[in-house]
Here is the input.
Amino acid sequence: MINAYVTIPVPVAAGANVLFPGSRARTNGSCHCNGGWLTHEDGSGQFLISRPGVYLVGVGAQVTSAVAATDATLAITTNGEALAGTTMAETIAAADDVAQLATTALVRVPCGASITVGLANVGTTEITINAASLVLVRVA
Here is the structure.
């Protein structure tokens, strides 16, 4: 299990991953160096799952934009593609308004494969992440 976070405003370009500068809770079983199933470096926007199983991914983010009428659109991604059913969107009506976005999904990693999970700005304009949390847990 890992809980990665963003606590300071971070701009995220269209098509880019949200970078997670820290992680507050991480189980030893998930640490790749301990023979675990997860590789993630603080400051990266990618979480590599290298063991077969089913994983729960939950994300929440507070987003804003300096530009009025901006669509803030985030999605959980697997191997760089938006995961169906996880796209979250909110129109920032006035500059610097704040929106809360959240979603969860189950991700299956088949035998002999690995999957990279992330949270990406799948919209067409840059947005700012004021705060975010990503939780990734092996459930089966």
